[in-house]
Design a protein that fits this description.
- By secondary structure, the chain is mainly alpha-helical.
- The chain is 73% helix and 1% strand.
- It is built from 20 helices and two strands.
- Strands 1-2 form a two-stranded antiparallel sheet.
- A hairpin with a 3-residue loop joins strand 1 and strand 2.
- The longest helix is centred in the first third of the chain and has 51 residues.
């Protein structure tokens, strides 16, 4: 028998010590889990920051060879950057969510899908992502649908990148106001270049020089799709008076407001002169919504009056320069001629100035009546809606029974034809015909992401193909010049429900946050302007990448409470 020299008491103490050591090691391992989660969350946050910088600050200035193929350059840039960042960030995000779920399960805490409480916007975004997958696998043109039409590249992967941008930014990005200001800082010189270009001044040698191309963005439709939402971001912050208050806000508030005012002034100048009337229509929609939302807040009504004065100030300066150097203006549009005509410019400037004085006096005397202003804004909104309905009704009647409006019958506004709205009538008709010619399955799932022209070219009816050739010759009609109609054709009813639901819910949810969260509300105005513009326009890599970035940022600010 071997004597160990240890008593029963010592053996018990040793076993207890061993057990305590195992518990300590277990607790140490458990404590490593939150640390790993924090590291992964930080990695995602900084990775998304870099991704946003590339999309919001680098992409607007990016081109390889002037205007030669600038739209394709930006689309390829977006696809390559997104493929790299989404390829790296998505697996890290999944790992983070798995480890976070494991930690929640151990602690007994409630689990939330994808890192935060879901809102209806998120469900619609998920539906749109699912619709893209279904549309791609049901498409007859998967080779084209994978990346999109040649030189356009708005197919399955680019669309999925947009959905991923929304979810990654909204879930894993720590909101930073400087990112918003960086976007505006880059946009300001883009606006200034566009304004100078319209007067035949070209600080940058972008060739081939053509009035259809402008600033560092390219085609006037692409430029308008970028200008509208980014301009609305600055106008929204000026309207919401972000930067005022105590501490740092009081210290820098006036400077921020002044810089915002200059930014908006230059933005209005380039928006009026850029050449696409859809941008002016979008501006009218946003200003009307801001007017209605300002009824309950005299300070914001004053700010809106100031924004209107900036608009007419930009128009006065532009009209004066145009008259000084009339031969330098290299592009004109109906909207531009209207806004810069003395018949509109003078009375609207006077009315805006009187309105500004009236609101200021009422606010100073303390006689500003929210109820009175609500009646005024409601009446104005109702009058505008009634006017639009009347015009549409008159156009429908005159289109069905030509000449029924007498002298007005010859006005192009009151006749919906293929040439209506710079051939928007033809593009809309082509999109609708392409959709109605599909069987039930492809009405539900679409012809495939960015595969509209492939469907028309391969399977379109003789009437449809003939109509396109008659109006556009040999041009490939890759979209219907109406974003929602194009989404309907490409991704079907499922895709349209997801996309439209996401956008509409995003706008309404963000605008409701106006009183407490100025950055969230500003993002809502961006979405509103983009959507109003794209009733007459289309998705293009530059504009849609910016708007989905803003969309995700707005959701992140909403979560934070900015």
């Amino acid at each position: 028998m071997v004597h160990t020299g240890m008593t029963h008491t010592e053996i018990g103490m040793d076993e207890e010590l061993h057990t305590e050591t195992e518990d300590t090691i277990g607790k140490g391992r458990e404590s490593e889990l939150p640390a790993v989660c924090r590291f992964l969350k930080g990695f995602l946050d900084y990775g998304i920051c870099l991704y946003l910088i590339l999309l919001l600050a680098v992409m607007p200035l990016y081109s390889q060879d002037g205007y030669s193929h600038i739209g394709t350059d930006k689309a390829v840039f977006f696809c390559k950057v997104s493929a790299v960042f989404c390829g790296v960030l998505l697996p890290v995000a999944v790992l983070y969510l798995v480890m976070r779920a494991a930690g929640k399960r151990k602690s007994g805490s409630a689990l939330q899908p994808f890192g935060m409480c879901w809102k209806r916007t998120d469900y619609f975004a998920a539906l749109y992502g699912a619709a893209l997958v279904i549309s791609y696998f049901c498409s007859r043109y998967r080779e084209v649908a994978l990346w999109g039409a040649k030189r356009w590249y708005m197919g399955f992967w680019p669309q999925m990148f947009l959905v991923l941008i929304y979810f990654l930014v909204s879930r894993f990005w720590k909101p930073r106001k400087w990112m918003f200001y960086l976007m505006l800082t880059v946009a300001a010189p883009v606006f200034a270049l566009g304004y100078l270009n319209r007067f035949s001044v070209y600080p940058l040698q972008m060739e081939p020089r053509n009035p259809q191309f402008i600033s560092t963005i390219g085609n006037i439709n692409w430029y308008c799709g970028y200008v509208v939402p980014v301009l609305m971001a600055g106008a929204g912050l000026l309207w919401l008076q972000e930067g005022r208050g105590g501490g740092e806000r009081r210290r820098f508030g006036r400077l921020r407001s002044a810089l915002c005012a200059v930014y908006v002034l230059v933005g209005f100048g380039t928006l009026v002169t850029q050449g696409s009337d859809s941008g002016i229509a979008a501006l009218a929609v946003v200003l009307l919504v801001m007017f209605c939302l300002s009824a309950a807040d005299s300070r914001r009504m004053v700010a809106l009056a100031q924004i209107l004065l900036l608009l007419w100030g930009a128009c006065i300066v532009t009209a004066a320069v145009w008259r000084a150097v009339p031969n330098n203006m290299n592009y004109r549009s109906g909207g531009m001629d209207m806004l810069l005509s003395a018949k509109v410019l003078i009375p609207m400037t006077v009315v805006s100035f009187l309105f500004f004085l009236w609101v200021c006096v009422k606010r100073k005397k303390g006689t500003y009546s929210e109820k009175q202003m609500w009646y005024l804004t409601f009446g104005t909104g109702a009058a505008v809606a009634a006017g639009i309905a009347l015009i549409l009704s008159m156009a429908a009647v005159n289109t069905i029974w030509p000449g029924s409006l007498g002298a007005l019958s010859s006005h192009p506004l009151f006749t919906f034809s293929e040439s209506w709205g710079s051939n928007r009538g033809a593009t809309w008709k082509a999109g609708w015909m392409c959709f109605t010619e599909q069987d039930f399955l492809h009405r539900l799932t679409g012809v495939g992401p960015d595969a509209m022209w492939e469907e028309i070219r391969s399977r379109g009816s003789a009437e449809l193909v003939g109509m396109i050739k008659r109006n556009f010759g040999s041009l490939n009609l890759v979209n219907a010049h109406n974003e929602w109609l194009t989404v309907l054709v490409n991704t079907g009813l499922l895709g349209l429900c997801g996309f439209a639901g996401m956008i509409v819910c995003g706008i309404t949810d963000f605008l409701r946050e106006g009183r407490k969260k100025p950055f969230v509300c500003a993002c809502g105005l961006c979405l509103l302007g983009y959507t109003a513009n794209n009733i007459f326009s289309f998705q293009q890599a530059m504009g849609v990448a910016v708007i989905f970035s803003i969309f995700g940022m707005g959701r992140a600010f909403q979560k934070q409470g900015a």
